[in-house]
């Protein structure tokens, strides 16, 4: 009985988060995500996107390789976007 109540509460919180995420589209884009990814967004997938984006921006990541095109954003913006979105992701 308690588990069902927790699941219902989590579902309601999840719906609120999805509605709020529409206001954070720039942060999602900065991490390489889109609003289409929002329904499945959890802490693990958010962290994975953050690590991938951070590696892409890291100056030592492409040692010996040809430099890629100028990356969009910098690591500070990526960190801020991650922290902002991490606070929204629940359940």
What structural class do helix, strand and pairing data support?
mainly alpha
Oligomer: single chain
Kindly provide the radius of gyration, computed on alpha-carbon positions and rounded to a whole number of angstroms.
16 Å
Largest sheet: none
Q: What does the average pLDDT come to?
A: 81
Low-confidence stretches: none
- 3D shape: elongated
Helix content: 55-70%
Could you describe the 3D structure shown?
- This protein is mostly helical and 91 residues long.
- It has one domain (2-58, 72-88).
- Helices cover 60% and strands 0% of the residues.
- It has four helices and no strands.
- Helix 3 (43-57) packs antiparallel against helix 4 (75-88).
- The radius of gyration is 16 Å and the shape is elongated.
- The two termini are 18 Å apart.
- The model has no long low-confidence stretch (mean pLDDT 81).
Topology:
Blueprint: H1 2-21, H2 25-30, H3 43-57, H4 75-88
Helix pairs in contact: 3-4
Q: What key phrases describe this protein's structure?
A:
4 helices; single chain; mainly alpha
Task: State the gist of this model.
This protein is mainly alpha-helical and 91 residues long. The chain is built from four helices and no strands. It has one domain.
């Amino acid at each position: 009985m308690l588990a069902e109540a927790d699941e219902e509460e989590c579902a309601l919180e999840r719906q609120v988060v999805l509605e709020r995420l529409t206001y954070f589209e720039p942060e999602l884009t900065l991490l390489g995500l889109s609003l289409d990814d929002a329904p499945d967004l959890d802490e693990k997938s958010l962290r994975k996107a953050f690590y991938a984006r951070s590696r892409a921006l890291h100056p030592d990541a492409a040692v010996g390789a040809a430099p890629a095109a100028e990356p969009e954003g910098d690591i500070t913006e990526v960190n801020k976007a991650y922290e902002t979105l991490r606070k929204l992701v629940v359940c």
